[in-house]
Write a structure and sequence with these properties.
Blueprint: E1 2-4, E2 18-21, H1 29-45, E3 49-55, H2 58-63, H3 74-83, E4 88-93, H4 96-99, H5 103-114, E5 119-122, H6 136-146, E6 149-152, H7 165-173, H8 177-184, E7 189-193, H9 200-203, E8 209-212, E9 222-232, E10 235-246, E11 257-262, E12 273-284, H10 291-310
């Protein structure tokens, strides 16, 4: 999958594509349904299929430093979209000019003049443009005038819950990562470089890879069974692991950290990128009388995490694919 930064830079071989238009935060099952509709139309027409999305997320632009909400920052979103077999991703910058652009101007300048689309697909209720005045009706009418087709994909049906990024965020904050994965269609993951820590885990026999979570949405405090992927030039090496998210109340900590113990692993992870895919919460956060009691509980937590992970199907790589190329 090729990544385009500006609609005006669209290569000739990607002109006439069928595109799915939206924010696609989380790339959940509802998003996958919209994308599948676009890909089906593209196959019928014999043209490329792509995504048109925005960075930063429009909500980040308008809300500024409000509470973190992004389910998938750019790297994770690009990787998930690439795994779907799309030909390209047009990642348009959402800046003051974009925020102030009328819906009709966005269609004419970006979709038609820049990308040269032949068909646009959105999810139900998608809005865009200045004042959120653009919608499916606008796209349909503009398509008739400018020569492209429009399809509003049907609502994705889940037997138990509404599939939405908002619902998934709530589940993650509650620590219900397996329920969130059911709506996402894949485990939620977090990726960052490993930083040096206070070595307490190593002192207790459970060395951990420490990652900062400042400014990022994350699951509620507790111990989780996870898959940890060491990201390298030759791909991602996956390991079973147990991870802790919290402030470490036993040691009067204040900063929320992610600490991951990779099972049966020995090696130096400092400075490397680690992708942690959350499978199931083993327990909530607790305060212990001291390191001995904590170490005993950590052994139990790791054993329970091993049991959870032993039952997984398709364990090798929770998120297929590496970061796609950029044009």
């Amino acid at each position: 999958m090729r990544i385009l930064r500006h609609s005006g830079d669209t290569p000739h071989d990607l002109k006439g594509a069928v595109i799915a238009l939206g924010n696609f935060d989380g790339v959940h099952r509802g998003h996958a349904s919209v994308i599948a509709h676009a890909q089906e139309i593209a196959r019928e027409k014999g043209v490329p299929s792509g995504i048109v999305t925005f960075e930063p997320h429009p909500r980040s632009f308008f809300a500024g430093t409000a509470s973190p909400f992004r389910l998938t920052p750019f790297r994770q979103k690009a990787r998930l979209l690439d795994a779907m077999g799309l030909d390209f991703m047009a990642n348009l910058r959402f800046d003051p000019a974009m925020a102030g652009r009328l819906a009709q101007d966005f269609v004419v300048e970006m979709l038609v003049g820049g990308l040269g689309v032949s068909h646009v697909v959105t999810g139900p209720g998608f809005v865009f443009g200045k004042g959120r005045r653009g919608n499916g009706y606008i796209l349909e009418r503009m398509g008739e005038r400018e020569g492209f087709g429009y399809t509003e994909a049907p609502i994705f049906s889940h037997p138990d819950k509404k599939v939405s990024s908002t619902t998934i965020r709530v589940l993650l904050r509650r620590g219900q990562v397996s329920d969130a994965a059911d709506l996402l269609g894949h485990p939620w993951s977090y990726e960052a470089r490993v930083e040096s820590g206070e070595q307490r885990g190593r002192q207790m026999g459970f060395p951990t890879a420490n990652q900062a979570l400042d400014g990022h949405l994350h699951p509620g405090p507790g111990i989780y069974a996870v898959r940890a992927g060491i990201v390298g030039a030759q791909g991602t090496q996956w390991h079973d692991a147990a991870a802790y998210i919290g402030t470490r109340p036993t040691f009067n900590g204040e900063t929320v950290l992610l600490e991951t113990n990779l099972f049966d692993f020995s090696g130096d992870l400092y400075g490397k990128r680690l992708r942690v895919a959350f499978i199931e919460r083993v327990r909530k956060d607790m305060t212990f009388r001291g390191m001995e009691a904590l170490a005993k509980q950590m052994e139990e937590d790791c054993n329970r995490s091993r049991d959870v992970l032993a039952g997984l199907v398709g364990r090798s790589e929770p998120h297929p694919g590496e970061l796609p190329s950029s044009d």
